[in-house]
Amino acid sequence: MRRPRSQSWKSYSAPVGTVTHGSGQVETNAAGQLIVAYGPSQYNMDAFVKYDWKRWGYTQFVQLNVYNLLDDKELNGFIWTNPITAKLTYGVHF
């Protein structure tokens, strides 16, 4: 027998976004003098979707994380940004 749709979703969450800004990096030169190198501000967006359910007496979940959602491939200051990546996770809480 099929359960009503209202009972099939135990928990669902889908927040979007993180915003980070470039920050200073403190280094010293060969003479030991302080060098402060700044990069431009960086805008980054990540997202995830998580679904929780309870089966066989255990709470389980599946989560999909997507990093660099905008697929920004620019040189930010002194490093290249990571390409768009995704991670799928399954877990069981005992």
Structure description:
- It is a single chain.
- Strand 2 and strand 3 form a beta hairpin.
- The chain is 4% helix and 46% strand.
- The chain starts with a helix and ends with a strand.
- The protein has one helix and eight strands.
- Strands 1-4-5-8 form a four-stranded antiparallel sheet, with no helix packed on it.
- The mean pLDDT is 75.
- The chain has one helix at 5-8; strands at residues 11-13, 25-28, 34-37, 47-55, 58-67, 75-76, 79-80, 85-93.
- The chain has 94 residues and is mainly beta.
- The protein has one domain (5-93).
Brief summary:
The protein contains one helix and eight strands; from the N terminus they run αββββββββ. It is mainly beta.
Would you tell me the overall average pLDDT?
75
Estimated helix fraction: under 10%
Low-confidence residue ranges: none
Structural class: mainly beta
* Order of neighbouring strands in the sheet with most strands: 1-4-5-8
Report the sheet with the most strands, covering strand number, pairing sense and barrel closure. 4 strands, antiparallel
Shape, principal axes of CA atoms:
elongated
Distance between the termini: 28 Å
Rg calc: 21 Å
Can you count the helices? Answer: 1
Number of strands: 8
**Helix/strand order, N-terminal first:** HEEEEEEEE
